[in-house]
């Protein structure tokens, strides 16, 4: 140990930014730091319990886990100590000098942009909870000794950009575990008073599965203030709502109220307890590209891992834990994840969570609407990935539509309101709802009062290809193939389309097709347009317009399909163009290309050839000026 020197390092960039914000921002509640320290200490004790299954010598003669809070009001110091797994020198640098959890950058950028009005609701969501100590302390020392090691190290920092790591004398270090010493700021000295510490520990962390003791002043005997009884093993009838909320905030790193609490014990072939929560707001790592779940796994109250594969990825927003009585302890974390027993638990927990969501949707539509607003885009991933539960998920799904206003529409309600003669569930996919609502492809559907789902999430274009029907009704894009509107009657006062396309219009359509050549696969008279002159649709087979864009952007489309140009034979401009003679050949050719470019622009694309478009538009303007 004596050969190792003191080392000064600079915090990782994200940590430096975070510390700066904590020091220079005014948070509404600084109390959260104690909960974060206790949570870290409890995790350290639980990790040691797991390691001791295969290496019992790590426990030595100190087998009972504990967390001790010690107050020193005279010196304005506060100590939180555990006898858990402890840290090596490298682990200290990794755990206290960097932030590992995905989503940190989004968290920081949101705070810096002034969008984080929740203040303390943001602390602790990405492994940043430890740094909350710098809201109350102007210097922090962490002394740690790893279980089974004969070395100890001290980490020290004032939170202003650098930290120091040095060997610590064994006589001043814990026998095992970690001691965090806070040198409190003047305006935070009340955190060294016993009555305040006891109140905070009981209210915020009384549920942790490790006993907590309080030392009221230097030299005093520790006094137990929490017995370490795990909340999830208690009867639901014994647990107060605020206890559930406190536990949720601790395990989820959230500071809001849970939208739903799921607490049950399964008995039979497998025995396990589950305590899970649907958060009241989106976690910042909801769209982590690894899409990892945040469910903790315990085996007979021994902590195994904090990202167990207990729920499918589309339920990764659920926070909580599973405690199994049947899984083996004498195998690695990786082998437990592959256990057939865990597969059975995964199925049971997933069904229970989805069942709870279904009950909420049925009994409290307003509460479920809030859940869907937060997590619907993630739940819809299951429509693409989970064939076994697709029907169940379709019943949970909610959508905006041309008939829903600002509210949400379920598929059962959609099917119940379908028009006589309507054979499909119509949808339109895109990336902007306002643009979708203004799309010309919707005109014929709107004229007949046919509801169309407006799908604006990227995943929508994928799942509709995998979920061919709901309640016997297929899903059909309004931007693909024939509109199939003839079977749905128009209102009595609406203008009825001609049974056949007039000959001059048919001749003009043929001319447009010849003029455009390979740019389109076909030019047709449209029954879906009532106001606009043109629109583009995809061929009947293959991807619809939006799905094709997504595939092309991802480099997964070898060759784009040629679109179909639909022209409204009842539009005045089209009728006028159709009446032009052969002496207007050049003008008609320009008009054919401009109609195609108009359709592209209405579809959210650029003109096919910007320079040619500009030249044609100039000639059109010159023609109008000459006639004027």
Within CATH, the superfamily of the largest domain carries the name Histidine kinase-like ATPase, C-terminal domain
Q: Specify Rg, calculated over alpha carbons.
A: 32 Å
**DSSP, total strands:** 23
The largest sheet is: 9 strands, mixed
Low-confidence stretches: 100-104, 116-127
CATH class of the largest domain: Alpha Beta
Share of residues in helices: 25-40%
Give the DSSP E fraction (strand runs of 2 or more residues).
15-25%
CATH architectural designation of the largest domain: 2-Layer Sandwich
Q: Which outline best applies?
A: elongated
Whole-number tally of structural domains: 4
Structural class: alpha+beta
Largest sheet, spatial ordering of strands:
1-6-5-4-7-3-2-8-9
Per the CATH scheme, the topology name of the largest domain is: Heat Shock Protein 90
Mean pLDDT: 87
Tally the helices: what do you get?
20
InterPro entries: HATPase_C_sf, HATPase_dom, Heat_shock_protein_90_CS, HSP90_C, Hsp90_fam, Hsp90_N, Ribosomal_Su5_D2-typ_SF
GO molecular function, one term: ATP hydrolysis activity
Subcellular location: Cytoplasm
Region (A): 1-333
Structure in a nutshell:
Helices cover 35% and strands 19% of the residues. It is an alpha+beta fold and 628 residues long. The strands form 4 sheets. A 9-stranded mixed sheet has the order 1-6-5-4-7-3-2-8-9.
Describe the protein in words.
Belongs to the heat shock protein 90 family. Residues 1-333 are annotated as: A. Molecular chaperone. Has ATPase activity. Homodimer. Pfam families: HATPase_c_3 (PF13589), HSP90 (PF00183). This protein is of the alpha+beta class and 628 residues long. The chain has 4 domains: 7-229, 2-Layer Sandwich (Heat Shock Protein 90); 233-363, Ribosomal Protein S5, domain 2 (2-Layer Sandwich); 380-477, Rossmann fold; 503-540 and 556-627, Four Helix Bundle (Hemerythrin (Met), subunit A) (Up-down Bundle). The strands form 4 sheets. A 9-stranded mixed sheet has the order 1-6-5-4-7-3-2-8-9. It has a 6-stranded mixed sheet with strand order 16-15-18-17-20-19, with helices on both faces. β15 and β16 (409-410) form a beta hairpin. The radius of gyration is 32 Å and the shape is elongated. The chain starts with 6 loop residues before the first strand and ends with a helix.
